[in-house]
Amino acid sequence: METIRIRTRPPYRISVEPGLLQHSGEMLKTLFSSGTRITILVSETPGKHYLETLENNLKAAGFDCLAFSVPPGEKRKNLQTVSELYDALINAGMDRSDCILALGGGRVGDIAGFCAATLYRGIPFVQVPTTLLAQVDASVGGKTGVNHEKAKNLIGAFYQPRTVLIDPELLRTLDMRERVSGFAEVLKYGFIADAALLETCITRRDAILNAEDLLLLTDIICRSVRIKARIVEKDERESGLRMLLNFGHSIGHAIEKASGYALRHGEALLIGMDAALRLSIRFAGLAPESQARFSAFLNALPRPRTDLQLSPEILIDNLRYDKKNKNRQTRFVLLRAPGKTLIRDDIPQTAIREILETLL
Fold it and tell me: How many folded domains does the chain comprise?
């Protein structure tokens, strides 16, 4: 088992091992006393595959369990859903000695974490992420929250979990769209911090996307989590260094929102990273041949066919609500070379529009 310590306030551990779900009860006994009620918030697909196994394992370890469904779809990641969950949790008699456990992807983890951060002003929270995106990104670092009609993830709180249990075996039930979506976040870590990880992703693309090699999946998950851990430990509240984790996200989030969330987060991020690479030639000194190689790789990844009509004007308008803006200026994370980044907040709208027109 790989154990990664996250030195935030409070600190916690992330455990990574194939088959870990089968030992989840024993893992949580080190944190919670027998008889603690663990309320599982779960979405439909993970519930179908893993809820019974998780509940049985927790009960065998002496925990009392309840489960509530989180409505499907990014459009339901909002305050109305949180309010409905508050009602369910309060009516079930939850108190501060209980624990909320998120079983699902990043959307479920964000909602569950926000409920845990705000109900009774904070109750314990555990992450059991079931998608690659959640395992390498959303479950790490304590960002929780929901969407606003103006933009993604505008409402939320920084709230660290008590622990994160990552089981790479769970990735084998994902569809290809979900695997590609998570793969985009792994690529992001390669671009901003680990050129060797980026090359592994390029050369072992099919093995990763097909979840053929659990040792390989475990390795890229751990490498990604360690990169995020190093950054989050230095900048827990995103006041500076943590901005690097948003490579490709400003335009990616704008595209995701403009699509009505028809595109998944990672699918929109692939376009956002392509845009960031193209901006990086002019504004960060990235070699054009590097941009061409990386953009070609991003565009060769499986994408859904859509009839979305996205205009540069709509995306530029969406950028105004990016939560990372400062002094009403959009901040972009750009690339000098893999592992060498630059943050710019002075990119003209004309340059952004030109890139978007090329991509769209």
Answer: 2
